[in-house]
Amino acid sequence: MIELSESAMRKLALGEDLTDAEVTALFESDYVKEGSPYPEFLSAGTPLYEAPGSLSLIQLVDVEREMFAYLARHPEQMRLITPRRFEELVAAIFRNNGFEVTLTPETRDGGIDIFAVQKNVFGGDLLHLIECKRYAANNKVGIGVVQRMAGVVDQHRANRGIIVTTSSFTDAAEDVRRTMPHKLAFGPYIDLSQWVVEIHQRNQAKKSNT
User: Fold this and answer.
1) Under a CB-based contact definition with an 8 Å cutoff, are residues 158 and 124 in contact?
2) Looking at the 3D structure of the chain, how many domains does it have?
3) Average pLDDT per 10 consecutive residues for the chain, totaling 210 residues
4) Model's pTM, two decimal places?
5) Where residue 151 sits, what CATH number does that domain have?
6) Considering the domain boundaries, does residue 153 fall inside one?
7) d(CA 131, CA 16)
8) 16 contacts: CB under 8 Å, gap ≥ 6
9) What is the DSSP pairing of strand 160-165 with strand 184-187?
10) Which of 87, 118, 204, 208 is the most exposed place for a label (fewest CB within 10 A)?
11) Using an 8 Å Cβ cutoff, are 94 and 114 in contact?
12) Would you say residue 70 lies in a domain?
């Protein structure tokens, strides 16, 4: 387990910004584990994490804020974090946009990494299935991944399947999506980077108003 430095912990406690090196350490540290009493950090569904006694819920929120700030400046780093960290990041993005999210177990083999529920005030909540592909820039998501997602959406009777990636999609994959726009949605790197920036900007606005 990689632990955060005392200076980084002190900054989190005081709500101060971390350095790039300290934020990079967050990507490698086990600041959250399965079984958490703090599901609000990344998952508003099944509790998946356990925070060590040294980190309070407020500090965990600060960790998330620092990650968004860092990735807004260095979006290319999303291609270097572990696949599981990338899934956690995507879950945090959707949670910050009003979804109730649940990460599936890391060993799950079914293509679905996140269940995201969009609450509907008129009833009939919308279920979105999310698959995360942390790929190199030149490794495009192909038609096979998209076709499997379409099948899984039908299997789960979900409203939509969303594939989020740090790369982009092949022309064939885009063709499939265009045939079923209400069933499938894509989150390529260019959109993903913008989502991170928007959340960071909202966090900055909140911080300025406190």
Assistant:
1) no
2) 1
3) 60 67 65 39 36 44 80 91 90 93 77 91 89 97 97 95 98 98 97 97 85
4) 0.77
5) 3.40.1350.10
6) yes
7) 33
8) none
9) parallel
10) 208
11) yes
12) yes
